[in-house]
Design goal:
The structure is a single chain. By secondary structure, the chain is mainly α. The chain has a single domain, classed as Recoverin, domain 1, CATH 1.10.238.20. The chain contains seven helices and two strands, in the order H-H-H-H-E-E-H-H-H. It is globular. The two termini are 20 Å apart.
Length: 143
């Protein structure tokens, strides 16, 4: 519960910065990512090295890693019960991403809109989505 409160506070802060025209920097995105990781890493016993690997398109094919990805994406509200929340995620990207990251990220999201279709297991679905996003945008940001 405490982690959810921290995450909600951070999202409100980031939106506030954007509304104030202060913009969201890559460093602020990284801080937000660290917060989400602080919720999911202990839960799935992921080392920093393992967690960092996802941002470098290193995808271990095991249940724990897949469920870690699902935890991150659910906490970012990009996944819900195994389904990609495309519209909500696109809206967040348009508001929160630094301008130089928006176009390529949204283009990858459009390409991966159906990446979770037909996948029953939420962990498998999240993993499939992340792999698709990375294959469509090699610099895709994943905390």
């Amino acid at each position: 519960m405490r982690g959810t409160y921290k995450l909600a506070s951070l999202v409100v802060l980031l939106i506030g910065l954007k509304i104030a025209n202060a913009g969201v920097t890559f460093e602020q995105m990284q801080k937000a990512g660290e917060l989400v990781r602080s919720i999911c890493q202990p839960k799935f016993k992921m080392s920093d090295e393992q967690a960092n690997g996802f941002g470098k398109a290193q995808f271990p094919d095991d249940k724990n890693s897949k469920c870690y990805v699902n935890c991150i994406l659910e906490n970012m509200q990009s996944m819900k019960r195994g389904k990609f929340q495309f519209e909500a995620t696109k809206k967040q990207a348009e508001i929160l991403l630094p301008d130089d990251m928006k176009e390529a990220t949204i283009k990858a999201m459009v390409a991966c809109k159906g990446a979770t279709d037909g996948i029953k297991d939420p962990c498998e679905a999240a993993y499939s989505l992340l792999k698709c996003l990375h294959s469509n945008h090699e610099d895709f940001f994943f905390p």
